[in-house]
Specification:
This protein has one domain (about 1-200): Rossmann fold. It is built from 6 helices and 9 strands; from the N terminus they run αββαβαβαβαβαβββ. The chain has helices spanning about 1-15, 45-55, 75-80, 95-105, 120-125, 145-155, and strands at about 20-25, 35, 65-70, 85-90, 115, 130-135, 160-170, 180-190, 195-200.
């Protein structure tokens, strides 16, 4: 009884924080809406930006092993899964956001995705045992997380040969120097945001 009560109470706390949804724009679950929590700093990638990104990835997303470094709403991860990515690993430090991501995975009966509740920078300091083909990096703004994330990905074998790395960052970022083996192949900006696609060249 106590355990069931705890689960129901937790579900109620999740529901009370829901403030909206993300919509999958193409693929297997096109048009599907997924709940998003009202958490400070949670900033889903806009549909327009997401559409541009996945046009860039059109010929690479199928069967790709993907890593979403600051998953948040899961907008990029779920879009990749909808478009037939082989697998997606989602890193997220907020416990309730992780719970919502898992609920959304369950609602779509997705079995080829893994949500890891962790501090992304700490997690990426570990040596990877399996490199990824596509990596999404959309960290909370004004937290100085982008540089250490990119450096850790490069230094700890997270990137497969010719891996593609998506970076979304605020225009007023003080300094960002991508690893020397990353070649910038696409770039756009909108409002206060810059988004870029890199390719690992060696």
């Amino acid at each position: 009884m106590g355990k069931n009560h705890q689960v129901k109470s937790h579900d109620r706390s999740i529901k009370s924080k829901k403030s909206g949804f993300i919509r999958l724009i193409s693929g297997k679950w096109r048009g599907k809406k997924l709940a998003v929590l009202n958490i400070e700093g949670l900033r889903p990638t806009t549909n327009r930006t997401k559409e541009t990104l996945f046009n860039w990835l059109m010929y690479d997303i199928h069967n790709a092993r993907c890593l979403d470094c600051f998953s948040g709403s899961g907008s990029l991860a779920f879009e990749a899964l909808s478009r037939s990515a082989q697998s997606v690993t989602l890193l997220e430090r907020d416990k309730q956001v992780c719970q919502q991501l898992k609920l959304n995975l369950q609602s779509l009966k997705i079995e080829n995705a893994l949500v890891i509740e962790t501090d992304s920078i700490s997690y990426l300091q570990q040596r990877s045992t399996q490199p990824f083909n596509i990596v999404f990096i959309d960290p909370p703004f004004n937290k100085s997380l982008l540089q250490p994330c990119c450096d850790a990905l490069e230094n700890n074998a997270y990137l497969a040969k010719n891996a593609l790395i998506y970076v979304e960052m605020e225009k007023k970022i003080d300094l960002f120097t991508p690893p020397s083996s990353w070649e910038l192949i696409k770039e756009k900006s909108t409002g206060q945001v810059i988004y870029q696609l890199y390719k690992k060249t060696n």
